[in-house]
Amino acid sequence: MVKGMYHHIADIWKKPKEGLGSLWQQRLIEWRKSDAVVRVEKPLRLDRARNLGYKAKKGFVIVRVRVKRGGRKRPRPTRKGRRSKRQTIRKVLSMNYKWVAEQRVSRKFPNLEVLNSYWIAKDGKHYWYEVLLVNPHAPEIKSDKQLGWMASGTHKGRVFRGLTSAGKKSRGLRKKGKGAEKSRPSRRAQSSERLLKKSRAK
Q1: Is the bond preceding residue 185 a cis peptide, omega within 30 degrees?
Q2: Which of 148, 132, 152, 140 has the alpha carbon at shortest distance from 53?
């Protein structure tokens, strides 16, 4: 059976460090020196980009973004005295790295909307993602059968409302049915409802 180009690209990206060899190291060295958010000409993982809705046409923008790994530590307050905030210096971030990367890109390009994103690399300090952006005002996007929904005003700022794939995963909306009763409409809404029921019971 003859395998296509996309199959071979996906096969290389299963173990990119081994498949790409020295090119992998060269890319990481260059990316560390470059800015955190960089616009690129073409997607690095063409198979993944096409799978997520990318098309080589006007209205598409691809951006590489770098995100720091590890926890989010708050600086300790310098003033004296015992306070509750002095004890907790570690901030627990409920969003995954991919969702954070998408939001940073969206703030950099406010006239574009995030379609999706995918992982491209990591080292000891950083993660790198490529984010697919769409111009909802472009006539090529408006007339597209698969992407015309992006032109609707209801999808404006979708990445900040957790409507992208990474956002839905972080919010626990990938699962349905038994075991996911406390995920909808949101975890915050469910917890506030429980508190309200407790207060009424008293």
Answers
A1: yes
A2: 132
Average of per-residue pLDDT across 141-152: 92
pLDDT at residue 64, as a whole number: 97
Backbone angles phi, psi at 85, to 5 degrees: -70, -20
Q: What span, in angstroms and rounded, lies between the C-alpha atoms of 35 and 179?
A: 42
- Please state, as a whole number, how many other Cβ atoms lie within 10 Å of the Cβ of residue 28: 16
Alpha-carbon 121 to chain mean position: 14
Mean of all residue pLDDT scores within the chain: 88
In three-state secondary structure terms, 80 is: coil
**pLDDT at res. 80:** 66
Enumerate residues 6+ apart whose C-beta is below 8 A from 77.
Answer: 83, 85, 86
pLDDT value of position 88: 66
b/e map of 171-201 (b: 16 or more CB within 10 Å)? bebeeeeeeeeebeeeeeeeeeeeeeeeeee
User: Which tokens in the block code for residue 29?
Assistant: 């060295």
Q: Where are the beta strands (DSSP E) in the chain?
A: 37-40, 60-68, 72-73, 90-91, 113-122, 126-134
- Tell me the pLDDT tens digit for each residue of 58-89: 999 999 999 998 877 767 766 666 666 566 66
